[in-house]
Amino acid sequence: MARAGTHSSIIDAAESLIERLDRVARVSRGVMKANARSRSRTIKVLRLNGGWRLTVVAKNAKQEFHLFDISLEEISQILADDEFDSFEKIIPRE
Hints:
The chain is an alpha+beta fold. Helices cover about 20% and strands about 35% of the residues. The protein has helices at about 15-25, 70-80, and strands at about 25-35, 40-50, 50-60, 60-70, 90. The model is unreliable at about 1-5 (pLDDT under 50).
């Protein structure tokens, strides 16, 4: 699936997740924020009109992504992969 927008920088903690999501959804990359100072690695999913906001927070960085053309079930299936076990996941109920 094609990328939305032209800004393609991704924080290290989100690279493999966004690579997987890019295969099944339209992903719009948001601004990276340095010095997030988080003690844990977190992935948070919020419902938006027509899509989802995915926020990835790691040690010293935070970045938001907007996802389109994907269901919460599909997002949850990707996040259930062992590769993302090191993240705390905050996912809304359907």
